[in-house]
Amino acid sequence: MKEKDSIYTSPVGEIEPFKFDETVATVFPDMIVRSVPGYNTIISAIGLLAGKFAQSNSVCYDLGCSLGAATLSMRNQITNEHCRIIAVDNSQAMLQHCEKLIAQDPSQVNVELQCSDIRDISIENASVVVINFTLQFIPINDRQVLLNKIYQGLLPGGILILSEKIKFSDPKQQALQTEMHHIFKKANGYSDLEISQKRTALENVLLPETFKQHQQRLLNAGFSSAEVWFQYFNFTSMLALK
Ligand code: GEK
Question: Residue 74 — φ and ψ, nearest 5°?
């Protein structure tokens, strides 16, 4: 049974910057589905993409894995022998919950959990790399170096799946898509107070960019192409090909 996210239901005097601690880890499955439009569709498609692109004797990476939803989805679609998954997060609380969920999953694909900052790990022999809603938490100046490292660690024919909350250069689109996201959250049971307190907590923590900024950075890293394969309001998932 999923525990309900009620973190911001009561007025908070001083709202602290958002952190991925035990309180968040406990309600995370409920929080992410009610906050990110299309989350479940993206998770399923990550599995399908891994099923197609995971190569034998290679590694699939889940960077910023949280409770391992993308890892579990990949794990259940990978049929290649000797393919393993490395799932990385820098929140110990998230990884503890993730470990329990993976232990309950019957798939035989090997999963290694790493508690590290994704900027500090090495990426090698990769066929599939997933960064599902995590680049947005990395300082903007560190993003190019991280994507360069991913590109270098991918095998020929490898892919990167990058999902992000995005912003729009046209102010009208920006205002409309932001409003539609709030309508989405309200339809999922969040109050105006919860939405506004969470927005304050995420200010300067979650830093969205436009699709064009992401695409340019992916091309700069060396990817031969980078396109949107899914979008729902201001949430998008991109597929970059090596
Ligand atoms: C999912 N991918 O369910 N290094 C490692 N982990 C980090 C870092 C960092 N520098 N910064 C943040 N994180 C998941 C959802 S959630 C998205 C990803 C969201 C981790 C952080 O601890 C959290 O678990 C995750 O990135 C972001 O498919 O909550 O909006």
Answer: -65, -45
Residue 163 CA to ligand 1 center (angstroms) comes to 11
Q: Specify burial of residue 149 (Cβ count, 10 A radius: 0-12, 13-18, 19+).
A: middle
Ligand 1 atom closest to residue 130's alpha carbon, by position in its atom list: 2
Cross-sheet strand order for the sheet of 154-165: 111-115, 84-89, 59-63, 126-132, 154-165, 235-241, 225-232
The secondary element (H helix, E strand) that includes residue 120 is none
Q: Residues for the chain: how many in total?
A: 242
46/73 Cα distance (integer angstroms): 7
Considering the entire predicted model, what is its pTM? 0.97
Instruction: Give backbone dihedrals phi and psi of 104, rounded to 5 degrees, phi first.
Output: -85, -10
Give pLDDT tens digits for 147-178: 999 999 999 999 999 999 999 999 999 999 99
Pairing of the two strands 84-89 and 59-63 = parallel
Number of alpha helices (DSSP H) and beta strands (DSSP E) in the chain: 8, 7
Cβ neighbours, 10 Å, residue 208: 17
Pairing state between β 154-165 and 235-241: antiparallel
63: CA distance to ligand 1 center in Å?
A: 7
Q: φ, ψ for residue 122 (rounded to 5)?
A: -100, 150
Q: Which helix (H) or strand (E) holds 60?
A: strand 59-63
Contact status, residue 97 vs residue 73, Cβ threshold 8 Å: no
